[in-house]
Design brief:
Layout lengths: L2 H12 L2 E5 L6 H16 L3 E5 L28 E5 L12 H6 L3 E5 L11 E4 L6 H16 L6 H14 L10 H12 L4 H9 L4 H12 L2 E2 L5 E6 L1 H6 L10 H6 L6 E7 L5 E7 L5 H7 L3 E2 L3 E6 L3 H15 L3
Parallel strand pairs: 1-2, 1-3, 3-4, 4-5, 7-8
Antiparallel strand pairs: 6-7, 8-9, 9-11, 10-11
Bound molecules: manganese (II) ion.
């Protein structure tokens, strides 16, 4: 057991009132992590408050305990706050920030590369973990050893398996390690069912999201050498299907799937707002560098930025920068 994991488990054991916070635009990893910790803490008779400033997206509404997640609370009596998968403290969101900051002790559990944005008195950080769930699992095991309780329940397993599946693209991304599969095997043995989770998360889409996917693919274009592929969702598309930006989740992966594409880009013209841009790269390209040019950021293989309208100008600028960077 590493030092930070022991310290984290001790802090959880000592605390009675604990706030657990997800990041904004919550994904399966951040939600799976706070829910798994919540189950473990409740099993120990502790008062666990689960917070997600942006609520719970429909595709995660079935997760055990998801109905208990709150967007905020007036309470400021927590003796410990835990933030999972956030990258930076601000990413808990404006409504949750004062709650987390009111706690005398803060625990940061994360697999994001945190150059200067790590926070809290206790930090369980490991950039080699495919999902923050791998670290939360170790903390839960350590807490179980400290308290003499078996906290590895089927509910914990289902939440953490969902985190692994969503953060690894169903074990398809380069972040997957032997440790990821070892944990997946443990969770499967505890009853988590990857087939069911995959169906609930990936085949549980809104009508609008599939119509938007159709519109986006219809707009698909590439540079003459095929190395940069892009697609657009217009403000008119959003209005026609009464869709929100959340309905465009995952479309960019279809854009990057073009055989010749090193970089895939999805442009969304948000009605009355900015043009939001998601970028995905294949191994060998770096979309973080492209996003940085426009004031955005992310990782080498996945990044984002936003530009002022008009859409056509945003497309022209970003595609030009991308094709310049991939050398086409
Ligand atoms: Mn994550």
């Amino acid at each position: 057991m590493t030092m930070p994991i022991r310290k984290a488990a001790q802090a959880l054991q000592r605390a009675q009132r604990i706030a657990l916070a997800a990041h904004i635009n919550p994904d399966g990893d951040t939600l799976g992590c706070i829910l798994a910790l919540g189950h473990a803490l409740r099993a120990l008779g502790k008062d666990a408050t689960l917070l997600s400033a942006d609520g719970v997206p429909d595709i995660y509404g079935w997760l055990p305990g998801a109905e208990r997640i709150q967007t905020g609370t007036e309470r400021r009596d927590f003796d410990l706050a835990v933030v999972c998968d956030a990258g930076a403290l601000e990413r808990v969101g404006r409504s949750v920030m004062p709650i987390v900051q009111s706690a005398p002790m803060l625990l940061d559990i994360d697999h994001h590369v945190t150059d200067g944005t790590a926070f809290g008195q206790i930090r369980v950080l490991d950039a080699t973990a495919a999902a923050t769930a791998e670290l939360v699992w170790k903390v839960i095991l350590a807490l179980g050893r400290l308290t003499g309780r078996d906290l590895a329940t089927p509910d914990v397993a289902e939440c953490l398996m969902t985190a692994l599946i969503t953060d690894t693209g169903s074990f398809r991304y380069p972040n997957v390690t032997p440790d990821t599969f070892a944990l997946a095997a443990r969770l499967r043995a505890l009853g988590a069912q990857p087939a069911v989770i995959n169906e609930l998360v990936f085949e549980n889409r809104s009508f609008a999201s599939l119509k938007l996917l159709g519109r986006a693919l219809d707009s698909l274009q590439t540079t003459p050498d095929g190395q940069v592929a892009w697609a657009v969702v217009t403000a008119a598309d959003f209005v026609e299907f009464a869709a929100t930006d959340a309905d465009t989740e995952g479309i960019v992966n279809h854009v990057r799937a073009v055989k010749t594409a090193m970089v895939g880009i999805l442009f969304r013209e948000i009605p009355g707002g900015k043009v939001r841009i998601s970028l995905r790269a294949r191994e060998g390209a770096d979309v973080n560098r492209i996003a940085n040019v426009f004031g955005g950021g992310g990782h080498r293989l996945a990044a984002g930025c936003s530009l002022e309208p008009p859409l056509e100008e945003a497309v022209r600028l970003v595609v030009a920068e991308a094709s310049c960077q991939v050398g086409s």
